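Table S2 (continued). Query chain:
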Amino acid sequence: MAHSFGGKWTQEKLEKVGQYLQTYSTALKNQSFKRVYVDAFAGTGYIQFKERDESPTLFPEFQESEFQDFVSGSAQIALNVNPPFDQYIFIEKDTNRFSELENLKVSFPHLANQILPQSSDANDFLQAFCQTDWSNKRAVVFLDPYSMQVKWETIEAIAKTQAIDLWILFPLGVAVNRLLKKDGNISQSVKQRLDEMFGTEEWFNEFFKPKEIRTLFDTETGFEKTANLDSISDYFNQRLKSVFEGVAKNPLKLYNSKNNPLYLLCFAVGNPNPKANGLALKFANHILQMR
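Corresponding output:
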């Protein structure tokens, strides 16, 4: 059974990542490194775009009527790359989706021994995975969460390997911008989630400024939101630059059919070698610019 989700923006992100995977695998085919692909929110492997659901929803942009057919999910796209990766790690915490992922071994029998589905929390698995020996392997990791599941310590662990190229979908409009209330009155639980995602509490000072508020009897100090979609995007990209050797300069905003920005597709490379770093960024920047 396919995973129902998304619209044209979903297809666009998958095409971008797929193009990079093909370029990456071709470029490294004669290298001695073991090539690993990791999909941290793999779903079922397939995606079905569903018809509009008229029932109320918190995020109406997910109710798209643009498609009603099956397309390859990120797992399928990665498995179709030629030359293939030496290992495919698909992480999915949901038990029903995980059971569907295991069927990929049947769909790709020639790669069955290389496909390693993992029923695990993505953050926990990746942090442990990043602590393994990287002297003889390289990887591309795709972090494609529904919302704010990715923790900064996971991103930091990926960067520390200096051997992983990262594609990450940042929940720009679908979560972060919505949670940044105009008056800065954000609950402690939401602040904690944003702290975990950005890896710092400094985001508040970046996105809000003090403001004097006149009351009936006195003047109080409150806050006013100064952030917009561009400044939030720039801030997250700068956070990536603080831990990675190189970061794509032009992350891609992904929009729904109503032209509302949902996510920001970002790329970062951990390899400190200037030549390898430069090539990876060249490929990624080119792919991100293509429309």
